[in-house]
Amino acid sequence: MMVLLAEILAFSLFAFWLLFFLVQWLAQALGAWLGRRHTARGTAPAEGVGVVVGGMLGLLAFVLALTLSFATTRFEERRQGTLMEANAIGTAWLRAKAIGHPRGEELAKLFEEYTKLRADFITAPLDRDVVRSINEKTSALQNRIWDHVTAIVRERPDPISSALMAATNEVFDSSTAERFAFNQSMPVQMVWLLMGIAVLSIGALGYQLGMRGLSLPILSVLLIGMWTSVIVVILDLSAPRIGSMRSSAAAYYWTLDGFNPGSTPARR
Hints:
Layout: H1 2-11, H2 13-41, H3 49-98, H4 102-123, H5 128-155, H6 159-183, H7 188-211, H8 217-238, H9 250-259
């Protein structure tokens, strides 16, 4: 079921918005029908419904705030990770250029290739094969870079080569941290909790309106639309490779611009 949800989100955020809106609208309509039916039969509770509905709406507001905070934190971690990794690559490239060793130029070229590959990782779609291929290429390129760095350190065991090794190690650590951040999304349980509470709350609200003989179709549609929009934004923020709110690879392109002033690297 979660795979289907992810596929709908990847296909179109509006399609998911419309589908979830319809589910909530049906829940509200069903609740209103049950409320009117119980009132007509005289089996509707005389009091306490408003208290229960208020409690459910309050819980929904709390869960919305909780999940929004979670999604925003994950998004910020990915965004900050791209900047930190791009800066680390830039530092390692500068030290490779300044090392004064025959391997320095080749190492700098590898860092340029590595930067493009990391930009591809950030902009990769929700495709496991594509992401796996990029990760494999990243590991292979890291091994080639480390071979050069190791050779330089062995031939010149001085503070300059040690600084290059430290910078390279930071580059690799940053890529691991960014990969971890992109693998972290909102837990499935939290997604279903949010959606389930939203559907139950709007159904309970519809029951209360139906019990009192009220319709309020325009206000109900607006309320459902607002809740749906907030939930879609939360899911969009928490998902690293789907939706419109995705991490930008601009920092990597800016780093490439610094490697080759005046040139325009290919962007995706």
